[in-house]
């Protein structure tokens, strides 16, 4: 019998069509992340943004304000 995954733990995927992405940024992100495909690159980049925000929130809760850095 297959175990059921709680709805809160299931991934829901959306299709964004047409998705226009800066080709140079995508190529650079793919190289940095070591991704094999554009979809994998975008998903890993989104995961990285989320992880970064979670780390910043944890640091802020522990030590106070976190300095903001502008992306170039």
Explain how this protein is built.
This protein is an all-alpha fold. The protein has a domain at about 20-65. About 50% of the residues lie in helices and about 0% in strands. The chain has helices at about 25-35, 40-65. It is extended, with a radius of gyration of 17 Å. The model has no long low-confidence stretch (mean pLDDT about 85).
Quick summary:
The chain has 72 residues and is mostly helical. The chain has 2 helices and no strands.
Q: What is the total tally of β strands?
A: 0
Poorly predicted regions are: none
Task: Classify the helix fraction into a percent range.
Answer: 40-55%
Strand content: under 5%
Mean pLDDT: 83
Rg (CA only): 17 Å
DSSP helical segment count:
2
Question: Which properties best describe this structure?
Answer:
mainly alpha; 0% strand
Secondary-structure topology with pairs:
Layout: H1 23-33, H2 38-63
Helix pairs in contact: 1-2
